[in-house]
Amino acid sequence: MGQHAREASALLNTMGTSKKNEALLKTAALLCEKSQEILEANGRDVQRAKLAGMSPSLVDRLALSQARIEAMAEGIRQVAALEDPVGEVISMKTRPNGLIIGQKRVPMGVIGIIYESRPNVTADAFALCFKAGNAVILRGGSDAIDSNKAIVAVIKEALRSVSVEENSIQLVTDTDRETARQMMRLKEYIDVLIPRGGAGLIRTVVENSIVPVIETGTGNCHIYVDETADLDMAVSIVFNAKTQRTGVCNACESLVVHRSVEKEFLDRLVKRLKEKPVTLYGDEAAREAHDAVLPAAEEDWGREYLDYKLSVRTVDSIEEAIAHINRYNTGHSEAIVTRSYENAQKFLNEVDAAAVYVNASTRFTDGFEFGFGAEIGISTQKLHARGPMGLKELTSTKYIIYGNGQVRP
Amino acid sequence: MGQHAREASALLNTMGTSKKNEALLKTAALLCEKSQEILEANGRDVQRAKLAGMSPSLVDRLALSQARIEAMAEGIRQVAALEDPVGEVISMKTRPNGLIIGQKRVPMGVIGIIYESRPNVTADAFALCFKAGNAVILRGGSDAIDSNKAIVAVIKEALRSVSVEENSIQLVTDTDRETARQMMRLKEYIDVLIPRGGAGLIRTVVENSIVPVIETGTGNCHIYVDETADLDMAVSIVFNAKTQRTGVCNACESLVVHRSVEKEFLDRLVKRLKEKPVTLYGDEAAREAHDAVLPAAEEDWGREYLDYKLSVRTVDSIEEAIAHINRYNTGHSEAIVTRSYENAQKFLNEVDAAAVYVNASTRFTDGFEFGFGAEIGISTQKLHARGPMGLKELTSTKYIIYGNGQVRP
Q1: Among candidate residues A63, A215, A356, the one with its CA nearest the CA of residue B101
Q2: Which of A112, A12, A118, A126 has its CA nearest to residue A73?
Q3: How far is A235 from A232, CA to CA, in rounded Å?
Q4: Lateral strand order in the sheet of B110-115
């Protein structure tokens, strides 16, 4: 598979934008046309999951519908409409010796994606990697294997029909742990591995891969309510960041509140939270400030609940807030609510995360919201890409040098 | 050490350019002032190495002199003169909802460097990492341990004298393998590891590190002499790339020659190579073309000789040349000598390497030659940085978002 992917990648490397877009639009059309086959395969996955006692919320992530397949196709059309990053010359300069040195965006080559149950990742990840000129090797979870096989079969058929190498996408159909481990050793054939899923999957890939990894995902996001905050704005932002969707990495998991406004703020927040079943876990001061707050344990500060739960930490200064956040965060998204210019700047400068907000909800950390279009994930590492990763982040660069006989003295 | 580095990194994160430059200039001055102490320590390393039977060329890499220490100091002054990449806002846009989203260059945080015998790396690596706002943990080889300790002691003294946290640089003084392995596991404290040294060291780090790694170095660089090449230019470029310095990663290790010009080209090349003791190892056609060519084994195609040796491969087309290069190269620097516009463009587009040249020596792949100033190494991977890595490549980015109460609908 590695060898096939390398060969496909060499072809994709020089494929023009219009050909890539033709293949993507054909794929979108064929997914809709063949939706019945995909739904049947997905039905088998769903049935197996139910028999195995999978929780209803996980079954919901696994299940496809006509509408979901159409959304998948629409996502692919949107990727086709995005600007092609490949071939852009970022800089070009002439050196004193006459050498002309340019830096050009090129595809990464072969991208491996290891992911869990949601079958829509199969189509999304293919579209983004393909548009950026990369071959992909996908290794989805066993839960969605029938759906994934059906989706990949349709994509391959679409590629063949427009004379594009079908090995531009390959699916690892054997979903035991050993195949994932083997992918992590394929340094010669895979240029980068992107794990998409829960914290456990990501940790396994980071710890075992010798292929370079882009770490995505887990977000223990904080909102700090400063002593100068507009408390109504703070309530609105916290309510949004906690409850607009709970199972996502940019949801707020922890509140940090200045002691001087804590009582007043928690009073207003708890009133607003009556609309949703949110439980608060706080330190002693937070519990004194409001009886709705249950006691927090040390583990609460580092926990990504992904649920209607929120920890509350009391601080006496912005320095203490920043220190707490830099200790417990996962480098994803952090926000301050403040009216103080100085505190806003300090927070932006000193909090170490992919996205740092002043007076806005952490829920905006997302490729669409940032204006990049679709994204392959949100990088929480500092190497290569940090924050939402769009097409540009799926490319590398190459120096191209034009000479006329220069040698080094 | 990890904890100390994190604390130093938090201070460096907000340190202004003028303060960083003051510390660098003070370091350069103190290295010259204390050169006697450094030379004494280095003398102990050199004596130990000689007793242990180290080869003269390796002893030469290890040995310092007054002139080499002054060159080290001059290197640091040059880094002080480079533009500070930290704080640059690469882009800033206002979204339809009024959010202002900017992307800003920030330090990586803590950089770990694992390197071999040359003690000048200690000062070079510190200067570059420090200027880019990073704390460093250095782990040099046991051969140079006394020199490294003396250099780091001087740097720490210089930092203290200008009230900069001395833990901005830390040296691992225990040089057994276990300390290097421990560094590779310190994901919580080290943001990126850069190995500098031979292929064995780099492989060990890549295979064992769970900290993200930037792979540097090994270069099996090719020059392809096309059927349309100006053969005198080709001789001059090959002679330069092979012999100007042999022990470096951007030296040419392998020639690829179009069959139609092979005889004429090898005749001229062998005449020129009489100035230097270069041995050629070629395939059957190359041996038929010139008797100076000895037989090549399969291993020769993939070998980085770092010596007065050169392999010669015969091809019938540019496609065959590109396929050969993409199979055996290490992604470093590759060149074509040609008069054909079409072949030049094809080579630039299809050869997969950090730097691809038309009509110039591969020896130019270097931070100074590219106009970046000093470099920390040459990345041969596709993630984050590719090619010579200067200050900019030692930084990450962070999204900064200015809102006025936005929540996600």
Answers
A1: A356
A2: A126
A3: 5
A4: B169-171, B135-139, B110-115, B192-196
Pick from A382, A389, A402 the residue to mutate for testing the B interface (most B CBs within 10 Å): A382
> How far is the C-alpha of B409 from the C-alpha of B406, rounded, in Å?
9
B351 pLDDT tier (thresholds 50, 70, 90): very high
- For B245, the token pair is 């310095």
Give CA–CA dist A393/A374, Å, rounded: 12
Q: What angle do CA A377, A379, A385 make, to 5 degrees?
A: 110
Rounded to 5 degrees, what are φ and ψ at A57? -70, -35
Tell me chain A's radius of gyration from C-alpha atoms.
Answer: 24
Nearest CA in chain A to B213: A212
Contacts of A352 (CB under 8 A, 6+ apart): A326, A329, A331, B13, B109, B398
| B208 Cβ neighbours under 8 A, 6+ residues apart | B181, B184
Whether A287 has a pLDDT exceeding 90, the answer reads: yes
Instruction: Scan residues 276-335 of A and list those with Cβ closer than 8 Å to B.
Output: 326
Q: What is the pLDDT at residue A117?
A: 73
The answer, yes or no, to whether residue B373 has pLDDT greater than 80, is yes
Strand order in the sheet with B355-360: A89-94, A100-107, A395-406, B355-360, B333-337, B221-225, B252-258, B309-315, B279-282, B293-295
Give, for B406, the enclosing helix (H) or strand (E). Answer: strand B395-406
Position A116 scores a pLDDT of 86
CA atoms in the 13 A half-sphere facing the CB of A231: 16
**Cα separation, A170 vs A3, whole angstroms:** 11
Q: Is B57 in the A-facing interface, judged by CB distances under 8 Å?
A: no
Q: How many CB pairs under 8 A join A and B?
A: 193
pLDDT in tens, A251-280: 999 999 999 999 999 999 999 999 899 999
Query: pLDDT digits over A1-11, tens only?
Result: 999 999 999 99
| Distance linking the first and last C-alpha atoms of chain B | 45
Query: Are the beta carbons of A399 and B191 separated by less than 8 Å?
Result: no
User: Residue B175: helix, strand or coil by DSSP?
Assistant: coil
pTM of the model: 0.92
As a 3-state breakdown, chain A gives helix, strand, coil percent values, each rounded to 5, of: 45, 20, 30
